[in-house]
Structure formats: structure tokens, C-alpha cells
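Page 42, continued from yesterday. The earlier attempt failed because a stray header line got pasted into the input along with the sequence. Redoing it now with the clean sequence only.
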Amino acid sequence: MNIRTRRWVLGIGAIGLASLFVAAFLRLPRFGGARHPYGDRATDEALARHTSNVIASVNFDLRAFDTLGEESILFAAVLGTVVLLRQTRDEDRVPPGPAAVDRWVRRYALLGLPIALLVGLYVVAHGQLSPGGGFQGGVIVATAVHLLYIGVDYRALERIRPVALYEVGDAVGEAAFLLVGAAGLIGGSAFLANTLLPYGEFNTLSSGGTVPLLNLAVGIEVACAVVVLVSRFLDQAVEITEAPSKPDAGEAGTA
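This time it went through. C-alpha cells are written below.
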């Protein structure tokens, strides 16, 4: 296919896409009006599945496949970071010494750590009931872990942060989301269809069907992914240094 033909194909495709956008735009509800068909349908579907947080219903039920893509982007970003920031042959790992931390910084960091951890777990667990969910709660949990680095030092952080386990947790969270989706296919429904579990009693932790399970999978994946990401950057900044250059054979013989 020559350049001219490619341009024609591109032009025809662009015109078709623009026509679809214009047609969709013209059929949108009037701004500020009382008719909200998309919001009404999302709310009705959320209530039908006993999910009081409509946003969580959209993310983990109505468009759960899109959420899988977002989770997979983070998973791929972590994988790329691990590969790019791994220790190379011309680098050495030098463990840092104890750090001197201001007593007020230490006090408030150690006070905030359990509070932030509890809040993060609460946000993950209640994502189907109230604003929040796995993405937000996972970041809070990962932040709570790194408050130990701010309040004490890097060595204290390493004791509660076995990176290998968090890497496994990242993979487990990603795999759990896929397995819940595949269970829908095995059950004779669609991928990630919310038809596997009873919807439970409205406005309780067990409500929402598969929404709490997918929310938990995302929370595990995001928390572990952020910990791994930060650990790789901290390793580069704190531990990994350039190895001293070695003299070649000629210089060694001359010496």
C-alpha cells in the first residue's frame, strides 16, 4: 500500500469516526436538564445489585472490563520498573546507616502509621458502600507502610517490607481479578458478569455480589504495586551506588 492509499484510508476512517462523534453529541441530553438517562440507568443497576456506591458499581460491575485494563496498566508499569531499575553489574549495594530523625517528625509519623493503615483497609473493605475503593485504599495502605521510613529510617522500613512478598501480592491481585471474571464464563454467563454470588442485604459488607471481591483484588494489587514501585526508586536513591572502576590488565602490570 503506497502513501497516497494510506492517506485515503486514514481520511475515510477519520470522517467516519467524526460522524459518529457528531451524531452522539447531538443526542446528548441538554445540559442542566432534568433528563439523565446514563446516570439513571447506572443508579438503577447499582440498586438492583445491592451496591449502594454507584461509582463502585460502575467500576466493578457495569464496566469491570475497563477496570481490568486500568489495573493491568499499573501491573505493567511495576513490571517495567522492576526490569529497568534492577541492579546492574557496574553497581554495588551499600546498606545505609541509621538516620537522625527529628523527634516531632518521628512522633507524628509513628502516630499516623496505624491510623493511615486502618483508614486504608477500611476504604478497601467498604468500597461497595461508600466513596473510595481498592484504588484509593491501596494507595493509602502503601503510604502507611512508608511512614516508617519517614519516622525511623530505611533499615526499619526494610524489616516490614519484604519486596519479594509484595511482588507476589501484586501478581495475586491481578490474577484474582482475572479469575473472578473467568468464573463468570464457567458459570455460563459473561466475563466479569455479576451473577456468581448472592447480592446480599443492601448496605452491608456482604452486599454487591462480586463487587467486593473485585474491589479487594484491586486493593491488594494497588497496595503491593505502589510498595514495589517506591521500593525500587528508594533502592536507587539510598542503597545502589556506582561500583568503583577496576584498573585494566595493562595498568595493573605497570603498577
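Notes: The longest helix spans residues 211-239.
Reminder to self: strip header lines before submitting.
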